[in-house]
Predict the 3D structure of the following.
Amino acid sequence: MQFPPTVIVRHTHENPRKCSVMPLRGRPDVLFLTYPVKERPLLEGYVRLAAEGPLLSPSDADKGILLLDGSWRWAAAMTRDFQDVLPRSLHGWRTAYPRVSKLGTDPDNGLASIEALFVAYHLLGRSVSGLLDHYHWAEEFLRVNELDRSR
C-alpha cells in the first residue's frame, strides 16, 4: 500500500545537531518543511501527532502523518498553525531521550520526534526500517517499550 509522505515541520530554533529526525532528510517518503511554513501543502487526509487528543489507531492507517518538530516551548505556536489537522496522541510509550526542561514544559507522555514517528509507523503497520539507524538512544527506547526495530 502506498502512503502519503510523512510531513515533518521543523522549527527554525531547533538545534539541527540535537534534532532526532534530521537523518531522515533525503528519504522519498518524508517531506521536510521549515516553520514558519510559507507555502503549506494540502494536508487533507493527514493526522497530526500531538501530546493530547484521541489515540492513534489502526483506523488511521491510510492517513498521512504530520509531525511538528520543535521543543515543547514552541509547540503551542506551531500547533496553532496546524489546528485543522486532526490530532492523534501516543499515550503509554516511554522516551529514552534524556530531556531536561528548565521551564517544566515537557509533558509526561512526550517522546523525541523520532520516537514518536517510530511508534506511529509501528501502530499503523508501516515499515520502521531505517528510522532509528542514527538515533543515539535507539536501543534503550526499543528496550523500555519492548519493541523490535526490524519490523
In short: The chain has one domain: 6-144.
